[in-house]
Amino acid sequence: MPMRPSPASPSAGSGGAQAIIGGRRLVGHLLGRRAVAPTPAGDGDDDATAGEARPVALVVDDSPIARMLITSILESFEVDVFEAGGSAEAQAVVATCRPDVVIVDWTLRDETATDVLDALESRCAGGLPPVVMVSASARMPADLRATTTLRKPFSPRELYAALATAFSGKRDGAAEA
Global pTM? Predict the structure, then answer.
């Protein structure tokens, strides 16, 4: 549940640097680049993210491995991530902060994403933030409260597309890369 420390910036030779920089700009742009105190010069951040608050994501999945993978992708986009294994942990997170996006697995061990969203909705003043629903199942109910859906396994590019859809305010039902 606690926020993980920010990972070290990947080297330019890693092949993923351009996607990571693009992801930082996308998330910053879509969230309106909330201003914070300027960061010291020369800290390694690119100019697009200097002086901006990092967006916050809540990842709800009963699989620790799935949470770790989603968290790693989001952190590469400089998103602060809180993790939860179910609705009780998710409620504890929203009691301390308001996430900018919720990424939730459709089928959890003892509940569904609907149960999680019901619990969160009662705690989130002003309603739920955008929701990205993920699932390994080929079929999910049509009446989801998700802004977009994403089928497991997914690539960082597909998660990027889902975030773009979620933050656009449009409901499309599926994210395509």
Answer: 0.72
